[in-house]
Amino acid sequence: MIRCIASSLLFALLALGGSAPAAAAPAAPAASAPSGVWYEIFVRSWADSNGDGIGDLNGVTAKLDYLQSLGVSGIWLMPINPSPSYHGYDITDYYGINPQYGTMADFQRLLDEAHKRHLKVIIDLVINHTSDQHPWFKAARDPASPYHGWYSWAGPHTDLQEQDAAGPQAWHAMGAAHYLGDFSGAMPDLDYDTPAVRREMIKVGQYWLKKGVDGFRLDAAQHIYLDFKADLDNPKTLAKNIAWWSEFRRGMNAVDPAAYIVGEVTRDSADQLAPYFKPLDAAFDFPLAKRLIASAGSERAGDLAAWIAHTDAAYRKVAGKSGVDAPFLSNHDQDRVMSQLGGNPQHMRMAAAMLLTLPGQPFVYYGEELGMRGRKPDPNLREPMRWNRATDAPGETTWEASTSHESPTVSVEAEQADPDSLLHYYTMLIHWGSRLGVLRDGTFHAYAAGNPHLAAWQLDDAGNRVLVVHNLSGRAQNTTLGDRRFHAVLLHSRPGVTLRNNRLQMPPYTTAILQ
């Protein structure tokens, strides 16, 4: 109890600038446990170590201390394999490193240095499709090649106009033949009814686990068999996806049973996502992201807590425990959070506060902690990370010019020096998760706050019970608690939170954790 109160006071000082050194990394007490927070990195945009304007693996290694100070438990690297595209989601060699990013020795050094800092590393595994420049596909153009059966080809009765489940068209012409490519003609789909494909992709996963990676983010996990819109809710298609990922999981367990595997499954409800929690550790919670941003932007809780309670119950029913969700606010395919919230910094803070006080393993997209902006098309969402006030400073990536024209204040250099910055705020919240295990692993219960501007939930584990309350509005709010078990303010994001005679008073845009 004394330790937690001391942590609360220190975090409050950090948020207000009481003792944080002006130019140092955000200070925080040593974590007693992992925060459970993952940080998504687009290597090309992260940090440039050799002056060519392109981010690289050595640049990631150079910034590990920043990630450690932020308090995250691990990083997710977007594709690092060789690819003809800037984004890397069309791979030409599953066993190699993109030469623009460095060498396998550079990657091994990154893994070793991350693990020294107790940071886990997962990598994007893009195995729904290959590049059309992959040697397999080049060979597959010959119907006599054994690789021909590794891809899906149209037959004489195929409807070439059938609506694609993921992209503008499913079938793509190559001479007189047509091949399946859910996302584009440059990304031909592999055929997972071919045993050799399944064996090879298990081999790929095992290869990287043996290298030392801690798991995978599975790109397009639902599209292994979901190719056409007509099959979107087809239980047979779902069953085939689950069967494949179960086989993949068994293959990974043979190397590392603790490997963390999270899937990209873009469905609209927890009930549609829940089946993937059988073979996978988690699936990204796309519907929750929309709800969190909507509540932050409207300054109203609505039915958010009840909706999250249903989500937690759905996942717990399959996984057998709470704390398995993979919540997030935005990623490399979506408008950045600050842009979705119209540039409102207080709404951004409240969205972050809700995200980082939910059970599970939250994901933060790089630059989100600075308030970077970006709207579609996709390259604008993946612009260079801002390390310095000057965009041409050493280490900055310059492969893509900024379209958001951020102020120099939206940079690590500027925000480290500002004790009231969004960066310090994120650091405080992430370290809360490392101090209170119940925030990471607790069972979620909706809590009726009796005030439309207060989002509240109770979290329980074997030895703790806390009440999380967020004032989403720009005005002070109060409520009378209906449960006298909560009698003290354990943590708060800003001063002025009081709890007297069961009456909770909260300043504008504030988060409090009660015990």
From TrEMBL:
Signal peptide: 1-24
All copies of domain Glycosyl hydrolase family 13 catalytic, residue ranges: 40-418
Alphabetized SUPFAM superfamilies for the sequence: (Trans)glycosidases, Glycosyl hydrolase domain
Disordered as annotated region, ranges: 376-411
Reactions catalysed according to its record: Endohydrolysis of (1->4)-alpha-D-glucosidic linkages in polysaccharides containing three or more (1->4)-alpha-linked D-glucose units
Keywords associated with the record: Carbohydrate metabolism, Glycosidase, Hydrolase, Signal
Biased composition annotated in UniProt, kind: Basic and acidic residues: 376-386
Composition bias, Polar residues: 399-410
Record flagged with keyword Transferase: no
Family: Belongs to the glycosyl hydrolase 13 family.
Name of the protein: Alpha-amylase
Organism: Rhodanobacter terrae
